Amino acid sequence: MTCSKESLRLQYQQIRAHSLSLASGLTAEDQCIQSMPDASPTKWHLAHTTWFFEAMLLRPYAAQYRVFDASFHYLFNSYYEALGPRQPRPQRGMLSRPGLDAVHAYRQHVDAAMEAWLEDLDDTQWQALQPIIVLGLQHEQQHQELIVTDILHALSCNPLLPAYRHNDAQPSAVSVATGPVRWLAHDGAMVDIGHDGQGFAFDNETPRHPVWLQPYAIADRLVTCGEYLAFMDDGGYSRPEFWLSEGWATVQSQAWSAPQYWLQGDDPRLKERGGDAGWQIFGTQGVQPLDPHQPVSHLSFYEACAYAEWAGARLPTEFEWEASCSASELAQAFDFVWQWTRSAYAPYPGFRPIPGPAAEYNGKFMVGQQVLRGSSAATPASHGRLTYRNFFPPAARWQFTGLRLARDL
Description:
By secondary structure, this protein is of the alpha+beta class. Helices cover 34% and strands 11% of the residues. It contains 10 helices and 12 strands. It has helices at residues 5-23, 42-61, 72-75, 100-120, 123-156, 225-233, 245-254, 268-271, 301-310, 318-326; strands at residues 183-186, 189-193, 209-213, 216-219, 262-263, 280-283, 286-289, 338-344, 370-373, 390-392, 401-402, 406-408.
């Protein structure tokens, strides 16, 4: 993809500013918390996204660039083995120093250097380096979603159950979730899957390739909280016949009895808040009564599969999802919850990672993970697309993850 320097400079400014706005309502103490190994402190996200531009662009290509702090190269590397050692992921919450002010100064330093460097690039350099600049912006948008999901988990561990943002707008689901599911039938067909080369895509979305689909039907909308509650009321978490073996072992070892962030009325934290006996859900706006029409969220792959088995259905493959979404048939495909698929995260035929240090971006994680499609309420507005392949381990459920049903014909 190509765009003008001015257009990319504007995107850079807007995306970088949005990261700061996501953190603006948080205290410095909030931004240091790491509530579990899979999550990272807000402060670390702000620094790591800055590190990406410094490590991938300014240090190797900007001859006049002055490193802000040499220790930051170690502190804020995530998983790039080719670029050296790093602070272990489970210990990012130990980085009480550098402080938040230093991280903000780091961002300002790198942003000023990027602005000056972009201005000085000649046409040849611009054409060669534009892809990695765009990747850096897309990478920051991924971390913007993680800022929201990670701080939500951290705040859920606080007995006060504080809201992340009281005015956080949520997409309305009532208009499409008040009636029964419509099943959209598809005959067997050969379909093209993957990115077509127009605009940006991560390397794992390529190459575009043909896939044969057997006849199937897919639900026109997402599974709701009310429908999932019916599964729970029917003993869903105590009936092993619905669960994959690893899922059932996880339910028992983790004592799962509801989706993450669902709270019963007798929870002592709710009693302190004057809660009633009904189900409540902790979200970005704090504790809210369960809305039966909203899509169920914060499910693991195991829970999604168990619900589908109970409902006499299954999860769609990522190819069925993409083919149906290409036909513009799916309601709630984007902006609500990421949707688990029955597809393991594996390379497409002919996959090649992007060259250079960023080759580690996607390909090395193609084992032990499941593909999710769509986008969520926490995904930046310009970041989702039809061919996007999100991926998480099957037990993960702190993300905004839900499900859509499918079945064989």
